[in-house]
Structures are given as C-alpha cells and as structure tokens.
Amino acid sequence: MNRLVSGIVLAAAALAAILFLPVFALRLVVSVIAALAAYEYLRIVGADIRVFPSAAVVAWVLSGPVGVAALWLLVLMTFAMVAVGVLFTGQDAPRAAAGTFSMVYIGVPLGLLVMVHDGFGWQATIFLIAAVVVSDSMQYYTGRMFGRRPLAPTVSPKKTIEGALGGVVFGAIFTTVAGSYVFTGVGLVPLAVLGVVIVALGIIGDLFESRLKRQAGVKDSSDLIPGHGGVLDRIDALLFAIPAFWVFSLMYVA
After folding, report:
1. Which of 48, 130, 162, 209 has the most crowded Cβ, counting Cβ within 10 A?
2. What percent of the chain has pLDDT over 70?
3. Where does the pLDDT of residue 1 fall: very low under 50, low under 70, confident under 90, or very high at 90 and above?
C-alpha cells in the first residue's frame, strides 16, 4: 500500500510540476532532485559526500540561459574537483573521480531535461518520461510472464532477456504512436528507433545503478521514498535516456 500511495503522489507531483511550474521554478526543483540523487550516489560509491551540491550546480547552470556552453564549465569543474580531492582532502584519484562523476552522471542529464522542457514544451517532457515508464513496466510484466533467461544474472538476477525484448517492442510501439502526436512531421521510423534507443539506454542505466548497489551491498539508494527506495532508484533509467532524447529533439524537431 505504501508503494502504491507514494507512487501516486510522486506521479501527481511530477505531472503538476511539468504542467504548471515556470521554467525558473522547475530548474529549482530539478536542482534539488539532482542534489538528493547525488548524495545517494556518493554514499553508495563511498566518495566524499561534501561534493553533492556540485550536481545541483551543473543542473542549474546547464538548464539556464548559458545552456550547452555551460559544458565548458563542467570540464573545468571536473579537473578542479579531482585535483582538490587528491591534493587537499587526502582522497585517492579513483575516489575523487568517482565523486566528481556525479556531475556528469546526474547533473548533466537533469539539466538537459529542463532544456527539453524549455525548448520543446511540456509535451516532450511527459512523452520522454512516459516512454521510460512504459518500457520499465512492460519489461516487468513480460519478464514475469515469459522470462526464462537472465539478462545480467550477476547484476540484477530478476531481469530477463525476454523482459528486455518486451520492453523494446512495447517501448518502440509507444514512441511511434505517441510520438506521431507530440512530434508531428517526424517519420515513424525515427520514432521507432528512438523507442529502441530509450529502452536500451534505460536498461543500461538501471543495470549501472544495480551494479553500484550490489558492490556496496545495499538494496536501495536510500529509504527516502516509502516502497520505492531513493531518488536515484526512481530516475536511474531516465538519466541515461535523457541525453539521447535531447539529441533526437535537436536533430528532428529544432
């Protein structure tokens, strides 16, 4: 029951934010989400949690007027933070780099999500999120019904090849049908390919976080959301799908 109630509340809050918040307020919300997800990530990988605001800074700056030009700032921040971590806080290079990676892993995709919303409208934002949700759901149901062969047994034993294929099929169908209304004028083939790419990247994103949690010996990134785990658990697939969707939007819509 807790999972159902919290899921409904999360979905309603996300939909309300997308539909009604101005871009400035949405940037604030996304930056907070980036900070929370980064904090969870840093705890999982054992990096310095004091750098968790950096992902929020990247999301905020990237989604602002400077836009993609802010990626140069990201490069400078990456070098600076790794250097500071190694030289002045006593961290070894891998640990410092793992902490800095939160800016790329979390800050950049969430910043691009706001850019999608600002540049292509709330319809595009909802379309992307819905595509990931449909894919995840159909992976689960087709996996339960037909799953026999594990997809990545050492990382996520419950994921199956059959479930992944179900996600690909239904994800491609969804993006082809729904995308023809959201992106009028874009051909059916590019929309179908977009669906396959979103599903594939979503699976990779999910497995990536599962690997991190398995290495850390934890089930969820946190217990912040009753029945759902942490913020990172809810957006792991979306983080990998956002950049590809942004590139698609630039190529076919802009």
Report:
1. 209
2. 93
3. low
pLDDT band at residue 220, thresholds of 50, 70 and 90? confident
Burial zone of 4 (CB within 10 Å; 0-12 exposed, 13-18 middle, 19+ buried) = exposed
List the domain boundaries for the chain.
Answer: 24-120, 121-254
Enumerate residues 6+ apart whose C-beta is below 8 A from 152.
159, 207, 210
Q: Which residues pair with 160 in a beta bridge?
A: 150
Contact of 174 with 195, CB cutoff 8 Å: yes
Query: For position 2, what pLDDT does the model report?
Result: 63
- Which residues neighbour 2 within 8 Å (Cβ) at sequence distance 6 or greater? 226, 227
Q: What's the rounded Cα separation, in Å, for the pair 114 and 30?
A: 8
Distance from the first to the final alpha carbon of the chain: 43
Tokens of 52: 């968790």
**Tell me: the pLDDT tens digits for 134-170?**
999 999 899 889 878 988 888 888 899 999 999 999 9
Residue 52 to residue 99: CA distance in whole angstroms:
8
pLDDT for the residue 38: 95
